[in-house]
Amino acid sequence: MKLPIKNKYNYIVFCMFLILILIISIVISTLVGSVNIKSGWIFKIIANNLLKYNLFETVWPASVNSIIWDLRLPRILLAFLVGAGLSVSGIAMQALTKNSLADPYILGISSGASTGAVAAILLGVFGSFSGYAVPFGAFLGAMISIVIVFNIANFKRRSTPTRLVLTGVAISALFSSVTNLMVFTVNDENKVRSALFWMEGSLGGTKWEYIPVTFFVFVLCSLVIYIFSKPLDAIMLGDDIATTIGVDTKSLKIIVIVMTTLLTGAIVSVSGVIGFIGLVIPHISRSIVGSEHKRIIPVSILIGGIFTIWADVCARIVVSPEELPIGIVTSFIGVPFFLWLLRKSDYLSGGNNR
Fold it and tell me: Exposed/middle/buried for 159, CB within 10 Å: 0-12, 13-18, 19+?
Protein backbone atom coordinates (compact mmCIF):
# COMPACT_ATOMS: atom_id res chain seq x y z
CA MET A 1 0.00 0.00 0.00
CA LYS A 2 1.49 3.31 -1.12
CA LEU A 3 1.93 6.02 1.52
CA PRO A 4 0.40 8.40 2.26
CA ILE A 5 -2.96 6.67 1.77
CA LYS A 6 -5.17 8.76 -0.52
CA ASN A 7 -7.76 6.22 -1.68
CA LYS A 8 -10.93 6.21 0.47
CA TYR A 9 -11.28 2.42 0.31
CA ASN A 10 -7.68 1.87 1.42
CA TYR A 11 -8.18 4.38 4.23
CA ILE A 12 -11.22 2.46 5.54
CA VAL A 13 -9.35 -0.85 5.29
CA PHE A 14 -6.42 0.65 7.21
CA CYS A 15 -8.73 1.94 9.96
CA MET A 16 -10.33 -1.51 10.26
CA PHE A 17 -6.85 -3.02 10.48
CA LEU A 18 -6.02 -0.62 13.34
CA ILE A 19 -9.26 -1.59 15.13
CA LEU A 20 -8.23 -5.26 14.84
CA ILE A 21 -4.78 -4.44 16.25
CA LEU A 22 -6.47 -2.52 19.07
CA ILE A 23 -8.65 -5.51 20.01
CA ILE A 24 -5.64 -7.84 19.93
CA SER A 25 -3.66 -5.36 22.05
CA ILE A 26 -6.44 -5.19 24.64
CA VAL A 27 -6.60 -8.99 24.89
CA ILE A 28 -2.82 -9.43 25.19
CA SER A 29 -2.55 -6.58 27.69
CA THR A 30 -5.27 -8.20 29.81
CA LEU A 31 -3.26 -11.44 29.89
CA VAL A 32 0.05 -9.82 30.83
CA GLY A 33 0.83 -9.81 34.53
CA SER A 34 2.15 -11.78 37.47
CA VAL A 35 -0.97 -13.99 37.52
CA ASN A 36 -1.43 -16.42 34.62
CA ILE A 37 -4.90 -16.15 33.09
CA LYS A 38 -6.41 -18.30 30.35
CA SER A 39 -7.31 -16.27 27.27
CA GLY A 40 -10.69 -18.02 27.00
CA TRP A 41 -11.73 -16.60 30.36
CA ILE A 42 -11.43 -12.94 29.33
CA PHE A 43 -14.54 -12.65 27.16
CA LYS A 44 -16.60 -14.73 29.60
CA ILE A 45 -15.60 -12.63 32.61
CA ILE A 46 -16.29 -9.38 30.75
CA ALA A 47 -19.68 -10.66 29.52
CA ASN A 48 -20.73 -11.83 32.99
CA ASN A 49 -19.78 -8.52 34.60
CA LEU A 50 -21.38 -6.38 31.90
CA LEU A 51 -24.65 -8.30 32.02
CA LYS A 52 -24.60 -8.60 35.82
CA TYR A 53 -25.57 -12.20 35.17
CA ASN A 54 -23.61 -15.45 34.94
CA LEU A 55 -24.13 -16.05 31.24
CA PHE A 56 -21.11 -18.36 31.38
CA GLU A 57 -20.38 -20.87 34.10
CA THR A 58 -17.87 -19.50 36.61
CA VAL A 59 -14.94 -21.92 36.37
CA TRP A 60 -12.27 -19.40 37.35
CA PRO A 61 -11.22 -18.26 40.84
CA ALA A 62 -12.87 -15.12 42.24
CA SER A 63 -9.43 -13.51 42.37
CA VAL A 64 -9.09 -13.84 38.59
CA ASN A 65 -12.44 -12.11 38.09
CA SER A 66 -11.24 -9.24 40.29
CA ILE A 67 -7.87 -9.00 38.52
CA ILE A 68 -9.43 -8.76 35.06
CA TRP A 69 -12.55 -6.69 35.78
CA ASP A 70 -11.40 -4.46 38.64
CA LEU A 71 -7.69 -4.00 37.90
CA ARG A 72 -6.58 -4.68 34.35
CA LEU A 73 -9.57 -3.76 32.17
CA PRO A 74 -10.17 -0.23 33.55
CA ARG A 75 -6.43 0.40 33.34
CA ILE A 76 -6.33 -0.68 29.68
CA LEU A 77 -9.37 1.43 28.78
CA LEU A 78 -7.86 4.46 30.50
CA ALA A 79 -4.57 3.85 28.65
CA PHE A 80 -6.49 3.99 25.38
CA LEU A 81 -8.30 7.21 26.35
CA VAL A 82 -5.04 8.83 27.50
CA GLY A 83 -3.18 7.98 24.29
CA ALA A 84 -6.08 8.90 22.04
CA GLY A 85 -6.78 12.16 23.86
CA LEU A 86 -3.18 13.36 23.94
CA SER A 87 -2.86 12.53 20.23
CA VAL A 88 -5.91 14.66 19.38
CA SER A 89 -4.55 17.49 21.53
CA GLY A 90 -1.20 17.29 19.74
CA ILE A 91 -2.86 17.45 16.32
CA ALA A 92 -4.87 20.51 17.32
CA MET A 93 -1.89 22.37 18.80
CA GLN A 94 0.32 21.64 15.79
CA ALA A 95 -2.38 22.98 13.47
CA LEU A 96 -3.06 26.15 15.46
CA THR A 97 0.60 27.01 15.94
CA LYS A 98 1.69 25.73 12.51
CA ASN A 99 4.53 24.13 14.45
CA SER A 100 5.48 20.48 14.03
CA LEU A 101 7.05 20.42 17.51
CA ALA A 102 3.95 21.56 19.39
CA ASP A 103 2.22 19.22 21.82
CA PRO A 104 0.62 19.59 25.28
CA TYR A 105 3.79 18.39 27.02
CA ILE A 106 6.33 20.58 25.21
CA LEU A 107 4.10 23.69 25.32
CA GLY A 108 3.74 23.40 29.09
CA ILE A 109 0.02 22.55 29.15
CA SER A 110 0.65 19.22 30.88
CA SER A 111 2.94 20.81 33.48
CA GLY A 112 0.37 23.49 34.22
CA ALA A 113 -2.31 20.83 34.60
CA SER A 114 0.00 18.86 36.87
CA THR A 115 0.58 21.87 39.11
CA GLY A 116 -3.16 22.49 39.45
CA ALA A 117 -3.86 18.83 40.18
CA VAL A 118 -1.04 18.51 42.73
CA ALA A 119 -2.29 21.67 44.46
CA ALA A 120 -5.68 20.00 44.80
CA ILE A 121 -4.14 16.76 46.09
CA LEU A 122 -1.56 18.12 48.53
CA LEU A 123 -2.99 21.46 49.63
CA GLY A 124 -6.70 20.75 49.39
CA VAL A 125 -7.22 23.64 46.98
CA PHE A 126 -10.61 23.61 45.20
CA GLY A 127 -11.95 21.42 48.01
CA SER A 128 -15.42 22.89 47.46
CA PHE A 129 -15.55 20.93 44.19
CA SER A 130 -15.44 17.69 46.19
CA GLY A 131 -14.61 14.73 43.89
CA TYR A 132 -13.97 17.07 40.95
CA ALA A 133 -11.28 19.12 42.73
CA VAL A 134 -8.37 17.42 40.93
CA PRO A 135 -9.89 17.64 37.41
CA PHE A 136 -10.85 21.28 37.98
CA GLY A 137 -7.37 22.08 39.31
CA ALA A 138 -5.80 20.37 36.30
CA PHE A 139 -8.00 22.27 33.83
CA LEU A 140 -7.35 25.62 35.52
CA GLY A 141 -3.59 25.00 35.65
CA ALA A 142 -3.54 23.97 31.99
CA MET A 143 -5.52 27.05 30.96
CA ILE A 144 -3.24 29.42 32.89
CA SER A 145 -0.19 27.76 31.36
CA ILE A 146 -1.33 27.99 27.74
CA VAL A 147 -2.46 31.62 28.14
CA ILE A 148 0.98 32.56 29.51
CA VAL A 149 2.82 30.65 26.77
CA PHE A 150 0.85 32.18 23.90
CA ASN A 151 1.06 35.71 25.31
CA ILE A 152 4.82 35.59 25.87
CA ALA A 153 5.54 33.84 22.56
CA ASN A 154 3.41 36.39 20.70
CA PHE A 155 4.85 39.43 22.53
CA LYS A 156 4.98 42.36 20.08
CA ARG A 157 3.60 39.92 17.46
CA ARG A 158 7.01 38.30 17.03
CA SER A 159 5.90 34.72 17.43
CA THR A 160 8.00 32.10 15.62
CA PRO A 161 8.00 28.30 15.92
CA THR A 162 11.29 28.41 17.84
CA ARG A 163 10.08 31.14 20.20
CA LEU A 164 6.88 29.21 20.92
CA VAL A 165 8.74 25.99 21.75
CA LEU A 166 11.31 27.77 23.93
CA THR A 167 8.55 29.64 25.77
CA GLY A 168 6.70 26.37 26.33
CA VAL A 169 9.83 24.69 27.68
CA ALA A 170 10.50 27.63 30.03
CA ILE A 171 6.93 27.80 31.35
CA SER A 172 6.90 24.01 31.72
CA ALA A 173 10.06 24.26 33.85
CA LEU A 174 8.46 27.02 35.92
CA PHE A 175 5.33 25.02 36.67
CA SER A 176 7.42 21.92 37.40
CA SER A 177 9.39 23.95 39.95
CA VAL A 178 6.17 25.14 41.60
CA THR A 179 4.93 21.54 41.72
CA ASN A 180 8.20 20.33 43.27
CA LEU A 181 8.06 23.14 45.82
CA MET A 182 4.61 22.00 46.93
CA VAL A 183 5.79 18.39 47.16
CA PHE A 184 8.80 19.23 49.33
CA THR A 185 6.93 21.56 51.68
CA VAL A 186 4.08 19.18 52.52
CA ASN A 187 4.69 16.88 55.50
CA ASP A 188 2.15 14.18 54.66
CA GLU A 189 4.39 11.31 53.52
CA ASN A 190 1.60 9.26 51.93
CA LYS A 191 0.32 12.19 49.86
CA VAL A 192 3.86 13.09 48.79
CA ARG A 193 4.66 9.53 47.71
CA SER A 194 1.43 9.37 45.74
CA ALA A 195 2.07 12.76 44.11
CA LEU A 196 5.65 11.88 43.10
CA PHE A 197 4.61 8.66 41.38
CA TRP A 198 1.64 10.42 39.77
CA MET A 199 3.85 13.28 38.49
CA GLU A 200 5.84 10.80 36.38
CA GLY A 201 2.65 9.56 34.75
CA SER A 202 1.08 6.37 36.02
CA LEU A 203 -1.99 4.28 35.29
CA GLY A 204 -1.53 2.18 38.43
CA GLY A 205 -4.52 2.26 40.72
CA THR A 206 -6.96 3.07 37.91
CA LYS A 207 -10.58 2.57 38.96
CA TRP A 208 -13.79 2.28 36.97
CA GLU A 209 -14.88 5.64 38.43
CA TYR A 210 -12.17 7.36 36.35
CA ILE A 211 -13.55 6.12 33.03
CA PRO A 212 -16.97 7.81 32.52
CA VAL A 213 -15.87 11.44 33.01
CA THR A 214 -12.64 10.93 31.04
CA PHE A 215 -14.57 9.21 28.24
CA PHE A 216 -17.18 11.99 28.13
CA VAL A 217 -14.55 14.75 27.95
CA PHE A 218 -12.58 12.81 25.32
CA VAL A 219 -15.62 12.29 23.08
CA LEU A 220 -16.81 15.89 23.46
CA CYS A 221 -13.45 17.53 22.78
CA SER A 222 -12.43 15.15 19.99
CA LEU A 223 -15.79 15.59 18.26
CA VAL A 224 -15.60 19.39 18.43
CA ILE A 225 -12.04 19.39 17.07
CA TYR A 226 -13.05 16.92 14.33
CA ILE A 227 -15.97 19.17 13.31
CA PHE A 228 -13.43 21.93 12.71
CA SER A 229 -11.24 19.70 10.50
CA LYS A 230 -11.59 21.86 7.37
CA PRO A 231 -10.92 25.17 9.19
CA LEU A 232 -7.84 23.54 10.73
CA ASP A 233 -6.70 22.50 7.24
CA ALA A 234 -7.15 26.12 6.15
CA ILE A 235 -5.34 27.67 9.10
CA MET A 236 -2.32 25.47 8.36
CA LEU A 237 -1.93 27.52 5.17
CA GLY A 238 -1.75 30.73 7.19
CA ASP A 239 -4.18 32.98 9.06
CA ASP A 240 -4.54 35.39 6.14
CA ILE A 241 -5.46 32.66 3.67
CA ALA A 242 -7.87 31.08 6.16
CA THR A 243 -9.57 34.44 6.73
CA THR A 244 -9.84 35.00 2.97
CA ILE A 245 -11.78 31.76 2.50
CA GLY A 246 -14.17 32.60 5.34
CA VAL A 247 -12.61 31.08 8.47
CA ASP A 248 -13.08 33.06 11.69
CA THR A 249 -9.54 32.39 12.91
CA LYS A 250 -9.96 34.12 16.28
CA SER A 251 -13.04 32.10 17.25
CA LEU A 252 -11.45 28.92 15.90
CA LYS A 253 -8.35 29.39 18.03
CA ILE A 254 -10.36 30.10 21.18
CA ILE A 255 -12.60 27.04 20.71
CA VAL A 256 -9.75 24.67 19.87
CA ILE A 257 -7.53 25.95 22.70
CA VAL A 258 -10.36 25.51 25.23
CA MET A 259 -11.10 21.99 23.94
CA THR A 260 -7.42 21.03 23.95
CA THR A 261 -6.90 22.42 27.44
CA LEU A 262 -10.02 20.71 28.79
CA LEU A 263 -8.97 17.39 27.24
CA THR A 264 -5.39 17.62 28.51
CA GLY A 265 -6.55 18.65 31.98
CA ALA A 266 -8.96 15.72 32.18
CA ILE A 267 -6.24 13.28 31.13
CA VAL A 268 -3.57 14.65 33.47
CA SER A 269 -6.02 14.56 36.39
CA VAL A 270 -6.32 10.75 36.10
CA SER A 271 -2.93 9.71 34.71
CA GLY A 272 -0.41 12.36 35.67
CA VAL A 273 2.03 13.85 33.18
CA ILE A 274 2.72 11.56 30.22
CA GLY A 275 4.93 13.23 27.67
CA PHE A 276 5.53 13.11 23.93
CA ILE A 277 2.47 11.09 22.86
CA GLY A 278 0.95 14.26 21.39
CA LEU A 279 4.18 14.87 19.49
CA VAL A 280 4.97 11.41 18.12
CA ILE A 281 1.55 10.05 17.12
CA PRO A 282 0.38 12.97 14.89
CA HIS A 283 3.60 12.73 12.87
CA ILE A 284 3.21 8.98 12.40
CA SER A 285 -0.44 9.40 11.38
CA ARG A 286 0.36 12.25 9.00
CA SER A 287 3.01 10.16 7.25
CA ILE A 288 0.47 7.36 6.72
CA VAL A 289 -2.76 9.16 5.73
CA GLY A 290 -1.67 12.65 4.67
CA SER A 291 -2.37 16.06 6.14
CA GLU A 292 -6.20 16.31 6.04
CA HIS A 293 -7.46 16.53 9.61
CA LYS A 294 -10.63 14.54 8.92
CA ARG A 295 -8.28 11.63 8.12
CA ILE A 296 -5.56 12.28 10.69
CA ILE A 297 -7.81 12.54 13.76
CA PRO A 298 -9.49 9.07 13.60
CA VAL A 299 -6.20 7.36 12.75
CA SER A 300 -4.35 9.20 15.53
CA ILE A 301 -7.01 8.18 18.03
CA LEU A 302 -6.46 4.52 17.17
CA ILE A 303 -2.65 4.63 16.91
CA GLY A 304 -2.37 6.76 20.06
CA GLY A 305 -4.54 4.35 22.02
CA ILE A 306 -2.63 1.29 20.80
CA PHE A 307 0.72 2.95 21.51
CA THR A 308 -0.22 3.85 25.08
CA ILE A 309 -1.63 0.40 25.83
CA TRP A 310 1.69 -1.15 24.84
CA ALA A 311 3.68 1.53 26.67
CA ASP A 312 1.73 0.59 29.79
CA VAL A 313 2.45 -3.11 29.19
CA CYS A 314 6.17 -2.26 29.08
CA ALA A 315 5.83 -0.21 32.27
CA ARG A 316 4.30 -3.24 33.99
CA ILE A 317 6.79 -5.91 32.90
CA VAL A 318 10.21 -4.22 32.57
CA VAL A 319 10.95 -4.27 36.32
CA SER A 320 8.27 -6.79 37.37
CA PRO A 321 6.94 -7.29 40.04
CA GLU A 322 7.43 -3.52 40.47
CA GLU A 323 6.29 -1.17 37.73
CA LEU A 324 7.68 1.92 36.05
CA PRO A 325 5.70 5.13 35.63
CA ILE A 326 4.43 5.08 32.05
CA GLY A 327 5.80 8.60 31.55
CA ILE A 328 9.32 7.16 31.68
CA VAL A 329 8.53 4.69 28.89
CA THR A 330 7.00 7.33 26.61
CA SER A 331 9.94 9.67 27.25
CA PHE A 332 12.45 7.01 26.16
CA ILE A 333 10.60 6.88 22.83
CA GLY A 334 9.63 10.54 22.56
CA VAL A 335 12.93 12.27 23.33
CA PRO A 336 14.88 10.66 20.43
CA PHE A 337 11.92 11.42 18.14
CA PHE A 338 11.89 15.04 19.31
CA LEU A 339 15.63 15.38 18.64
CA TRP A 340 15.17 13.81 15.20
CA LEU A 341 12.47 16.39 14.42
CA LEU A 342 14.77 19.18 15.56
CA ARG A 343 17.45 17.94 13.18
CA LYS A 344 15.01 17.36 10.32
CA SER A 345 13.32 20.76 10.71
CA ASP A 346 16.61 22.61 11.11
CA TYR A 347 15.43 24.19 14.37
CA LEU A 348 18.87 23.98 15.90
CA SER A 349 20.48 26.39 13.47
CA GLY A 350 17.89 28.26 11.46
CA GLY A 351 15.00 28.98 13.77
CA ASN A 352 12.48 28.21 11.04
CA ASN A 353 10.48 25.05 10.47
CA ARG A 354 11.77 24.29 7.04
Answer: middle
